[in-house]
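User: Hey, my collaborator sent me this sequence without any context and asked if I could get a structure. I don't really work with proteins. Can you help?
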Amino acid sequence: MAENITNNAAWEQAKCLPRHIAIILDGNGRWAKKRLLPRNAGHLAGSETFRNIATYCKEIGVEYLTVYAFSTENWKRPEEEVGGIMKLLDKYLHEAIRDMRKKNIRMKVFGDVSRLSPQLQQLIAETDEISKDIEGFQANICINYGGRAEIVRAAQAYAEDYAAGKVTDELTEDMFSNYMYSAGIPDPDLLIRPGGEYRLSNFLLWQCAYSEFYYTDTLWPDFTPQELDKAIEAYNSRDRRFGGVKP
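Assistant: No problem. I've predicted the 3D structure and written it out in structure-token form, which is a compact way to encode the shape of the chain:
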């Protein structure tokens, strides 16, 4: 598209606006390497891209944005890099707590937060509490997250409730979805992976069963609202049948 669409009216008219977009934030390290910079410089640039894309999603009327920021496997990276990512998370959470009510934005963290520092856990708890009073755009950040681990966690929680007599009905997909981190929000309509890789990398395995996938070679720090427009345009060109056929 030649120009960004800065309000949702045009998207609604075209019938192409996904309610929920998920993005794998890939390419920060390669972006930094190309510029002979430390990897954490790439993560810093990527965090700015996230702010820009989240703002744009809100402007055009997307209701939910879920991003894969730090996986359960990312702890294997160098200690300095992990520490830098956690500092960026701390900075972002402080900014979110300051701005959420003013900007009418909810924020949730998906993942096992028990491995994070007590300070980060407290900040996450504060964003959860603030989000209860907000009904606007929701940004979900996946930290120490893995799709398989989420499914196991949900199964364990259901088993505990069943053993305690809290649930007696036959297990259904809808019921099981209520045990996921994403309980209460629609599954992603569109999943975007920048960075030129063509895999899901253990991201939202349950939720992305019928999502449309869009891949691009653009590295995440270079991902612009124009790139998002291209992804939504591609999404709009597809025929979503959810396993069925149309007459």
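In plain terms: Residues 104 and 136 are 5 Å apart (CA to CA). You can pass these tokens on to your collaborator as they are.
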